């Protein structure tokens, strides 16, 4: 149809201008206008927003394009997947705008990242969807028959909700020959008609006249409305009322209260009596105006009975009709101007608000887009938008009634994490009205602060011999950033301590900063550890800081004192010689000890624990010097044994003991005779006796058993030999030689010869003497029982106090089996003569060997034999002597 084609032609009628405004806050602003007819179906296309704004579909999606409108009904919808604007709700132009033309509504399309603001205006064109209607179904007139030709009678106009050409365009009066019709237009575009008397009335011939008035609009197709006109012809009244003004003007403030006087209209009638009585009424008044204004029908006074609002209607035009009792009328116009009053405060609409904002945002970053509306006019509607000058923000005006809130300086979240921004919009009225709104803006953290330790350096202490895994110390760092940027991890910087990596000594808990020992520390090996701890946050990129931690190892008394002098050796005895002429305070020797600990753990004190004669010697508490405390006499024993204990000052204290042997003598032989033998403990002798007796019993049992077996075997072989072979020749047994005798160098294989020598190669004489660094020191083997056969320089040696005598033994082959001087050095007789031992052994055989061993043990218990002559040596000697005797017997048999 033609109407459908017309709709399609108007759908895409876009205004030929499209302008862009770009602000400093990186906000792009554009305005576009579409025109569409009313009553389009839902989903009908309005326009291609993406194409008209020069945007692609991806930008609409990424920018989260959306429509922001202050209206309660969303008439349009933006389809971001297609970039088009479509109808969302039924649009009725008459309901939306009423008589206002052109009819349009506006909204904003907002995109983010970056911020863009586009205003779209949609104009609604009218379609002829409403027919003209009359307020009343019938119009009644009472006209005097004396009404003059040309008299005018105003007809109630028809109302059409449509506008423009679709509104009422003309009136048609039904065909008659009495009245004609004349049409008029008022400034607002409405039309009304008057009946004009064209022929005198004759009440007698036609007392009632019925006509029809038809109102026709200009739409396609045309629509019309009809009302009946009922005219009653009255008797004569030949003067109509006449207004004294054709136009009345009045003003009223929009905040005027009910009952406020506006103006008075006045009309006069030249007739007298009832024909000259004039009454007033509103003519062609809309119903809504009747609720606002009141007209006194007799006085012509107009008063305010409703509420006027300048923002809704700025002026009112009212037609007043004056009528006399004869039905004659006159009309006049009253124009009422509404005076604006500053009765509307600005309204703040936050169109877009970005929170949080990074603390490193650039200057001029758009935080919010604000729309401020004031329904007042002129000065009362002029708005000033401000914010607190103390805050790092400022407001810029972009489009009309649009403002952007941008950053004016840098942020520091650690100082101010959140801002309460008060935006104030005030108009220019008197008095000024204002509105405030508070925007709560949060500042998001940026990793701009490195961790900071509580101290510039740490010193920790740990006692040595600690348990591995023990907690030594904890470091702590703070990061004033937030969340992940403030999450601190601790690490050890890789350094070396005494050639080993730091991680082999200690470890650190990455979350708590606790430093734990990996190994047990020894103060004597390492005194301190110097670490570098790194604190690193979880930001991107991460920030870090270092701190030095010095761990001091505290000494523990874990080492006993060590005696350096006198030296204790297992193979020799050290003796300090003191002459019998020594006076009080004579320095015998000095005990030298050290303690590898430190501090008071290494403070040593010396005490005399045991002594042969406590009244003779004392030990210096601090220096360890052993001195005589009285005059040495001849009655004092030659051999003095002192036990000195060395204690440190630790808790608990540790100690070491040293035995100092002191020889009180003036000559060396006297010293030698006293230090050649040391008795064994009785307990040791008792134990040895028990084991020897037990061994003798076991060996005897084995010997008897073996003897029985051997005799049995011999008898068996002898019987066999008697059976197989019988000879009268003597049997001469042969034994291989088991001795060694070469030019008088010895007759036994295992014989010990004792020599007195100082060095391993000093074999030319029995005694070798040399100088040593110690004073009056006698070193001799406690097991030595030998005597010195040749001491030619005894006097010269003894006269030298620094000449030590070292007596040692070395087992070698000797030409003498058992030299008498090598077995004993005392004058006391032995229980059994040693000269009789070979004979006894040769007679007894194996049993003799056992008996000889027992005899040797007995002699040792009685301290007649040296310690080194043990059971095995005695057995070896006896076995060798027995072989020697058997060999001599064999030789005699052969002869």
TrEMBL record:
- What's a GO cellular component annotated to this UniProt protein? plasma membrane
Recorded topology in the membrane? Single-pass type I membrane protein
Q: Which GO terms describe its biological process?
A: anatomical structure morphogenesis; homophilic cell adhesion via plasma membrane adhesion molecules
Query: Record's InterPro entries?
Result: Cadherin-like_dom, Cadherin-like_sf, Cadherin_C, Cadherin_CS, Cadherin_N, Protocadherin/Cadherin-CA
Q: What Gene3D superfamilies is this protein classified in?
A: Cadherins (2.60.40.60)
The transmembrane segments are 688-713
Q: Which domain of life is it from?
A: Eukaryota
Where is it mainly found? Answer: membrane
User: Where does the record say this protein resides?
Assistant: Cell membrane
Could you cite one Gene Ontology molecular function of this protein? calcium ion binding
Endpoints of the signal sequence: 1-30
Keywords attached to this entry: Calcium, Cell adhesion, Cell membrane, Glycoprotein, Membrane, Repeat, Signal, Transmembrane, Transmembrane helix
**SMART domains per the UniProt record, alphabetical:** CA
What's this chain's function? Potential calcium-dependent cell-adhesion protein. May be involved in the establishment and maintenance of specific neuronal connections in the brain.
UniProt name for this protein: Cadherin domain-containing protein
Q: Which organism is it from?
A: Echeneis naucrates (Live sharksucker)
């Amino acid at each position: 149809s033609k109407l459908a084609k017309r709709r399609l032609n108007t759908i895409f009628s876009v205004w030929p201008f499209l302008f862009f405004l770009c602000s400093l806050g990186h906000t792009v602003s554009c305005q576009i206008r579409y025109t569409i007819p009313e009553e389009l179906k839902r989903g009908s296309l309005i326009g291609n927003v993406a194409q008209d704004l020069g945007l692609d579909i991806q930008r609409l999606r990424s920018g989260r394009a959306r429509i922001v409108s202050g209206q309660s009904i969303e008439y349009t919808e933006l389809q971001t997947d297609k970039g088009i604007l479509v109808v969302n709700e039924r649009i009725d132009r008459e309901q939306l705008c009423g008589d206002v033309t052109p009819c349009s509504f506006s909204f904003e399309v907002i995109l983010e990242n970056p911020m863009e603001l586009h205003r779209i205006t949609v104009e609604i064109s009218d379609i002829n969807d409403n027919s003209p209607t009359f307020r009343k179904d019938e119009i009644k007139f009472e006209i005097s028959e004396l009404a003059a030709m040309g008299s005018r009678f105003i007809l109630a106009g028809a109302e059409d909700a449509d506008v423009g050409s679709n509104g009422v365009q003309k009136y048609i009066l039904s065909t008659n020959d009495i009245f004609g019709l004349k049409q008029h237009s008022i400034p607002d575009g409405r039309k009304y008609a008057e009946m004009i008397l064209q022929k005198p009335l004759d009440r007698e011939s036609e007392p009632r006249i019925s006509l029809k008035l038809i109102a026709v609009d200009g739409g396609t197709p045309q629509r019309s409305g009809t009302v009946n006109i009922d005219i009653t012809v009255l008797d004569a009244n030949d003067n109509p009322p006449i207004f004294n003004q054709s136009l009345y003007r009045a003003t009223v403030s929009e905040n005027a209260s009910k009952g406020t006087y506006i103006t008075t209209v006045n009309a006069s009638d030249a007739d007298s009596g009832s024909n000259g009585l004039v009454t007033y009424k509103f003519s062609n008044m809309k119903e809504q105006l009747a609720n606002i204004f009141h007209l006194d029908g007799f006085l012509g006074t107009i008063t305010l009975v409703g509420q006027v609002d300048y923002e809704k209607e700025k002026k009112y035009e009212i037609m007043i009709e004056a009528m006399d009792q004869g039905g004659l009328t006159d009309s006049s116009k009253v124009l009422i101007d509404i005076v604006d009053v500053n009765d509307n405060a600005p309204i703040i609409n936050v169109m877009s608000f970005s929170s949080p904002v990074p603390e490193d945002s650039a200057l001029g970053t758009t935080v919010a887009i604000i729309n401020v509306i004031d329904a007042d006019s002129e000065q009362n509607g002029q708005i000033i938008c401000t914010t607190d000058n103390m805050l790092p923000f400022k407001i810029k005006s972009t489009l009309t009634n649009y403002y952007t809130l941008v950053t004016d300086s840098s942020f520091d979240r650690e100082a101010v994490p959140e801002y309460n921004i008060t935006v104030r919009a005030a108009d220019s009225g008197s008095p000024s009205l204002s509105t405030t709104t508070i925007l709560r803006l949060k500042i998001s953290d940026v990793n701009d602060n490195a961790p900071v330790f509580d101290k510039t350096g740490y010193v920790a202490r740990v006692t040595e011999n600690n348990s591995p895994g023990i907690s030594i110390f904890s470091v702590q760092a703070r990061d004033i950033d937030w969340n992940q940027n403030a999450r601190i991890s601790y690490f050890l910087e890789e350094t070396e301590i005494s050639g080993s990596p730091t991680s082999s000594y200690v470890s650190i808990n990455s979350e708590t900063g606790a430093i734990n020992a990996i190994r047990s520390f020894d103060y004597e090996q390492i005194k301190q550890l110097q670490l570098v701890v790194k604190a690193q946050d979880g930001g991107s990129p991460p920030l870090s800081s270092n701190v030095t931690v010095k761990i001091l190892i505290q000494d523990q008394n874990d080492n006993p004192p060590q005696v350096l002098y006198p030296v204790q050796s297992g193979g020799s005895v050290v003796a300090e010689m003191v002459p019998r002429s020594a006076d009080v305070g004579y320095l015998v020797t000095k005990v030298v000890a050290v303690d590898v600990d430190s501090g008071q753990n290494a403070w040593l004190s010396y005490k005399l624990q045991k002594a042969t004669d406590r009244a003779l010697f004392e030990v210096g508490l601090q220096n360890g010097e052993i001195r005589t405390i009285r005059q040495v006499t001849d009655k004092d024993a030659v051999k003095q044994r002192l036990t000195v204990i060395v204690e440190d000052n630790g808790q608990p204290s540790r100690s070491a003991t040293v035995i100092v042997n002191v020889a009180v003598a003036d000559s060396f032989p006297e010293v030698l005779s006293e230090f050649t033998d040391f008795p064994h403990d009785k307990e040791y002798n008792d134990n040895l006796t028990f084991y020897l007796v037990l061994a003798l019993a076991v060996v005897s049992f084995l010997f008897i058993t073996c003897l029985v077996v051997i005799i049995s075997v011999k008898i068996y072989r002898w019987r066999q030999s008697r059976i197989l072979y019988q000879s009268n020749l003597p049997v001469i047994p042969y034994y291989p030689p088991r001795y060694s005798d070469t030019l008088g160098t010895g007759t036994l294989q295992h014989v010990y010869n004792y020599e007195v020598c100082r060095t391993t190669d000093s074999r030319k004489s029995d005694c070798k003497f040399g100088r040593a660094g110690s004073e009056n020191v006698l070193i001799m083997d406690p097991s030595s029982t030998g005597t010195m056969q040749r001491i030619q320089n005894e006097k010269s040696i003894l006269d030298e106090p620094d000449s030590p005598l070292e007596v040692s033994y070395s087992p070698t082959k000797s030409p003498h089996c058992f030299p008498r001087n090598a077995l004993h050095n005392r004058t006391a007789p032995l229980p059994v003569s040693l000269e009789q031992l070979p004979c006894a052994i040769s007679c007894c055989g194996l049993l003799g060997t056992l008996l000889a061993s027992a005899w040797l043990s007995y002699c040792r218990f009685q301290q007649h034999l040296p310690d080194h002559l043990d059971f095995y040596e005695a057995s070896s000697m006896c076995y060798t002597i027995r072989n020697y005797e058997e060999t001599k017997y064999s030789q005699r048999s052969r002869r």
